[in-house]
Write a structure and sequence with these properties.
The protein has helices at 2-16, 25-43, 46-66, 74-95. The chain is mainly α.
């Protein structure tokens, strides 16, 4: 829910500042990062402690690319996000403590 609210607010900002328009990869990744930070704080989800930073870095890379400050191919950013997210879930599955049943 937090990610959806963040996406909505960022999309409204995107009406005034085009690099954050609703379908922008930067907007989507920033909203996902905000949702992961909220989940990490509330539920202490191990993977969110990793993916929040990955999504934030990916969103920043796309935003800087949209502004023309850096030149990076989007496939490299998406590859970084996908591999990082996969690694985060593997680490959680492998090492995170689970509640006793």
């Amino acid at each position: 829910m937090v990610s959806l609210a963040a996406w909505g607010l960022l999309s409204l900002l995107g009406l005034l500042w085009h690099p954050l328009h609703a379908s922008s990869a930067a907007t989507i990744l920033f909203a996902a990062a905000i949702g992961c930070f909220a989940n990490w704080i509330r539920n202490r989800s191990f993977h969110c402690s990793i993916t929040a930073w990955i999504f934030l870095a990916g969103g920043a890379a796309f935003l800087l690319g949209n502004l023309g400050w850096i030149h990076i191919e989007s496939r490299f950013v998406w590859l970084f996000v996908a591999i990082g997210t996969g690694v985060a879930f593997i680490l959680e599955w492998r090492y995170a403590t689970r509640p006793a049943q």
